[in-house]
Amino acid sequence: LDADEFRRQGRLVVDFIAEYYDRIDDYPVRPAVSPGFLARQLPETAPSQPEHDALAAALRDVRDLILPGLTHWQSPHHFAHFAATASNVGALGEALAAGLNINPFTWAASPAATELEVVVTDWLGKALHVPENLLFSGGGGGGTLLGTSCEAMLCTIVAARDRKLAEIGEERIGDLVVYCSDQTHFSFQKAARIAGIRKGNCRAVATSWETGFTLSPKALLAAVHADVAAGRVPLFLCATVGTTPTAAVDPVRELCAALSGAGHDDVWVHVDAAYAGAACVCPEFRNVIEGVEAADSFSTNPHKWLLANMDCCALWVTRPHALTEALGTDHDVILKDGAADGEAVVVDYKDWQVALSRRFRALKLWLVLRCHGVDGLRAFVRSHVRMAKAFEDMVRDDARFEVPVPRQFALLLRLREKKQRCHDDDAGRVINELNRKLLEAVNATGRAYMSCAVVGGVYVLRCAIGNSLTEERHVQEAWRVVQEQATVILAVVKR
Ligand code: PLP
């Protein structure tokens, strides 16, 4: 580490990134490359000696070799998946954390980093209208910053599992059952498997068009009752606010009430709002997490829609003790450097997560909240919802298309011919195939990049409007691309 050299190199990198953002509109969103394209252009081994002016040379390679092979997630034409929003201060916060390069696994390992995380998770919780019982300031709960929603699910399942096994005996781990819907992100099943839940004991309760692909409390209870009757033990429910395929919102209040009304209020309820949690910054969307005060934990990814660059998942729990009981590691004398030995109660975040080491994520989130303010974040979310509404109007105005389920937030889907609303017959397969071709054609233009989902047997196109650089003109262009490609595809079909 050399401070003067760091200044010089830092300027090179900052200028490089700024130039990239200046020109990002010009790149095709998705690269036209085939597997192995990069390895073929790079040496087989690392250089044994530092190269001459290595950073400048490497940046040239980034420009010439790497950028042409990237999918440009920050492109204003990127409408696939959910956005990974970036901001100046999100990126610079990452740079600041990388520059300081600390490892705040315990309070003592970096007191200010831990305390900033405590403060900033409460700040974010209040900004999102998260109930008091999940916050430090509420007296019982508290939050942490992890990398991903999958980690949030894993840590909370493990906490629930250990609490339950302490009650019924460890030998009954094979009887534990977890619940979700068939729309829940696959990372939940993955987390459950890692936590030792048997593969056959993850119930993905079926959803339908009738309930808008939300989890029905009645269907959940039916599954719970069947498990109890068979001698199994209901452990955990993952409800989703903003599902990945359609942004459906599971009815959190009703699900919690159904469980407790049936005598199962010991089932740990986790609310996964990876994408849509950000919308709660706007009072008009707070209703989507109505009832979350009855849940045990809640998580959202500020890196998706709140300008905090990758990666950042905020997890709040009502009882941090349940997490630390399961994930705490008290026996390592090396980490006992005195700070937590006194009277004061401190947070040791290593006991809230899987690994010991951790990143200083609080810094960038703190910068985002300070530099944009809650009002700024509201304006950001609202601008996307407004653009999505405009896009929806354009889709509805074209008789060849339909919006298959009510639009939620900034997510729009299914562009498909209206005539046949058939799901699994031949005509249904044909129209699914047309839509698949349409998506392929749209993405091949490089002028828009969307993704797909299959809901209720129907193939739909997902257009998730939520990138930092996306403006109305980009949305209009995306719609033009879809219309043009649909015209070509339908003309071929008619021939
Ligand atoms: N939950 C939902 C609703 C998601 O949409 C996603 C990813 O898009 C995830 C969970 C997984 O998130 P992560 O990659 O942070 O684990």
UniProtKB/TrEMBL annotation:
<dbReference type="Pfam" id="PF00282">
    <property type="entry name" value="Pyridoxal_deC"/>
</dbReference>
<dbReference type="GO" id="GO:0005737">
    <property type="term" value="C:cytoplasm"/>
</dbReference>
<dbReference type="InterPro" id="IPR015424">
    <property type="entry name" value="PyrdxlP-dep_Trfase"/>
</dbReference>
<comment type="similarity">
    <text>Belongs to the group II decarboxylase family.</text>
</comment>
<dbReference type="GO" id="GO:0016831">
    <property type="term" value="F:carboxy-lyase activity"/>
</dbReference>
<keyword id="KW-0456">Lyase</keyword>
<dbReference type="GO" id="GO:0006520">
    <property type="term" value="P:amino acid metabolic process"/>
</dbReference>
<dbReference type="InterPro" id="IPR010977">
    <property type="entry name" value="Aromatic_deC"/>
</dbReference>
<feature type="modified residue" description="N6-(pyridoxal phosphate)lysine">
    <location>
        <position position="304"/>
    </location>
</feature>
<keyword id="KW-0210">Decarboxylase</keyword>
<dbReference type="InterPro" id="IPR015421">
    <property type="entry name" value="PyrdxlP-dep_Trfase_major"/>
</dbReference>
<dbReference type="InterPro" id="IPR002129">
    <property type="entry name" value="PyrdxlP-dep_de-COase"/>
</dbReference>
<dbReference type="GO" id="GO:0019752">
    <property type="term" value="P:carboxylic acid metabolic process"/>
</dbReference>
<dbReference type="GO" id="GO:0030170">
    <property type="term" value="F:pyridoxal phosphate binding"/>
</dbReference>
<dbReference type="InterPro" id="IPR015422">
    <property type="entry name" value="PyrdxlP-dep_Trfase_small"/>
</dbReference>
<keyword id="KW-0663">Pyridoxal phosphate</keyword>
<protein>
    <recommendedName>
        <fullName>Tyrosine decarboxylase</fullName>
    </recommendedName>
</protein>
